[in-house]
Amino acid sequence: GSLERRRCLYLHTGRACCQMVEVLLAVLILVCSSVSCGSAGGYTGLPALGGIYYYQYGGAYSGFGGAEGERAQQLDQRFYLLKLPIARAAMVVGGCLLVFPCVLILVSVLQVPWHFPAWLLIECTLYIVIAVSTVPALYYFLHSLLSVYNSSVCKEREQLYQSKGYQGFWCSLHGAEIAAGLLGCMAAMAYLLSAGLAIRDYRTVHEQKQKPLQL
C-alpha cells in the first residue's frame, strides 16, 4: 500500500544513494584488506600464487636449494605473521563500516526518522565521528604496513628472492594496500556528505511536522 511505497521512496533519495555508496566502499575495503592479508603459506609465496606462477617457476621454491628453500618458507611465514594483525584490524574496520550504513538504511526504510526526527541528528553526529576517526585509522594502517616493509624480515626476504631472479617481492606498498587507503579517504568524504544530508533531511522533516500545527 501507500506505506510500502513511502518506504521504497527512501531508496531513491540522496541520503540513501550515499549510504549505498558507503556499503560498496566498505565491501571494497574488505576485499583489499583480505588481499593484503594473503595466506598462511606465504604472503606472496609461489604456492599461494598458484596457476601460471607455479608453472612459470617450475614448482614452488624451485630455484632454491634445500636450506635456502626452508629459509624462504620461514621468511614468508614470518612476513605473513607480521602483516596479519594489520590486515585483520583493517578487515574488522571494513566490516563495521559495512554494517553501519546497512543499519541506517533499514532504520530509514522503517521511517524511524519521521517518527523520531532527532534520530537524524544522532546519525549526523555518528557520521562526523566516524569521518574524523578515519584519518588516524588510515595513518595507523599505512604507518604499520611501512614498518613491516622496513623490517629486517622483509629486507632479507626481498634479497633472497631477488638473488634467484624472482620479481614481485619488493618491500613496498602494493596495489591493494594503496587502494584500501584511497577507499578509506573516499569513505570519509562520503560520511561527511551523509552528515550534511542528514541535517538537511532533519530540517525537512521538522518543517513538515510543523505544518499541521500551523493550520
Q: In summary, what is this structure?
A:
The protein has helices spanning 2-10, 14-37, 46-49, 51-56, 66-109, 112-115, 118-149, 152-163, 175-214. The two termini are 27 Å apart.
What is the topological layout?
Elements: H1 2-10, H2 14-37, H3 46-49, H4 51-56, H5 66-109, H6 112-115, H7 118-149, H8 152-163, H9 175-214
Written description of the protein model:
The chain has helices spanning 2-10, 14-37, 46-49, 51-56, 66-109, 112-115, 118-149, 152-163, 175-214. Mean pLDDT is 82; it is low at 40-59. It has a domain at 2-41 and 83-150 and 169-210. It is mostly helical and 215 residues long. It is elongated. The chain crosses the membrane at residues 21-43, 86-107, 119-142, 178-199.
Subunit arrangement of the protein: single chain
Helix content: over 70%
Which value, in Å, is the CA radius of gyration?
A: 24 Å
**Strand/helix succession:** HHHHHHHHH
* Cα separation of the termini: 27 Å
Structural class: mainly alpha
Portion in beta strands: under 5%
Mean pLDDT across all amino acids = 82
Transmembrane segments: 21-43, 86-107, 119-142, 178-199
Main location: membrane
Subcellular location: Membrane
Protein name: MALD3 protein
